[in-house]
Amino acid sequence: MTFYLAFFQLLLILPLAIILIATPYWTRKTESFGVTIPEHMYDDPFIKHVRKRYVLHMSSVSILLILVLTVLFMTFTLNEEIAVTLSITSVCILIIVGFLYYLFFHKQMKRFKKEHVDTTEKKQVVVVQTTFASEKKTHSNAWFIIPFVLIVLTIIFTYLNYSLFPNQIPTNFNLSGKATSWMDKSQATVLFIPLMQLYLLVIFMFVNIVIRTAKQQTNPNTPKESLQKNVIFRRRWSGFLMIFATLLIAMFSFLQYTLVHPVSMSIQSSIYIGVTVFILVGCIYLSYTMGQGGSRIHIDTESENDQTDFYGDDDKYWKLGMFYVNKNDPSLFIEKRFGVGWSVNLARPLIWILLGLILGFSIVLILFVP
Question: Are strands 333-335 and 342-344 parallel, antiparallel or unpaired?
Answer without folding.
Answer: antiparallel
